[in-house]
Amino acid sequence: MGLEAIAARGCQVWQLGLLPYERTWQWQQELVAERRENPELEDVLMLLEHPPVYTLGRGATLDFLKFDPDRPPAELHRVERGGEVTYHCPGQLVGYPILNLTYYQRDLHWYLRQLETVLIETLRVYGLRADRIPGLTGVWLNGYKVGAIGIKVSRWITMHGFSLNVNPDLEGFKAIVPCGIGDRPVGTLAQFAPHISLTDIRQTLPEIFAQVFQVSLVMR
Fold first, then answer.
1. How many CA atoms does the CB half-sphere of 166 hold within 13 Å?
2. What domains appear along the chain, each with residue ranges and CATH number?
3. Interatomic CA distance for residues 180 and 6, integer angstroms
4. Of 179, 186, 198, 212, which is the active-site residue?
5. Residues 128-146: pLDDT tens digits?
6. pTM: predicted TM-score of the whole model, two decimal places
7. Tell me: the pLDDT tens digits for 96-129?
8. Residues annotated in the binding site for substrate, as ranges?
9. Does the annotation count 89 as an active-site position?
């Protein structure tokens, strides 16, 4: 497919606030179902924050929880995405792209690397040099994991997505082994660039997303 077709594809940007996890989880499922019925619908990028919540990937082990799953310190959900346990809370920007990869590349590894690129290039705008670690999914800054990624793809339509730790309270991460990686710490942008706000990232990230995926943004 030529670049002209990709560039012409619209992607709605939904700038949302602090929303319960279950609400946005159901919302994603509805958006995916609509696009199964009508693949020509525009893509969507949901940007939001969650109250404290732990999520487990579909095959995640409970071994990475440091609490009784029957008495979690915050909400706990097992969902369709890949990967192990992660934690969401205010101060962390969560992105849920609902994309039809038929219009891009039918390649899950390509898609994961694209999401990493969005986060890396977003941080580059602020003079922060983030990078990848071979064999692992996510984005690191000075050895700290600041960006996590977990996806689900059904009939080449994506859901779930990424999270970027801008200035969250990391206390909740102490109750888990984040993403099953016990030897690498979780960090925030605030540790290295406290002047960067969540509002800044919300404005910059969609522009980078549009460049990386070659889409035309439709602001909502």
1. 22
2. 10-219 (3.30.930.10)
3. 35
4. 179
5. 999 999 999 999 999 999 9
6. 0.95
7. 999 999 999 999 999 999 999 999 999 999 999 9
8. 81-88, 148-150, 161-163
9. no
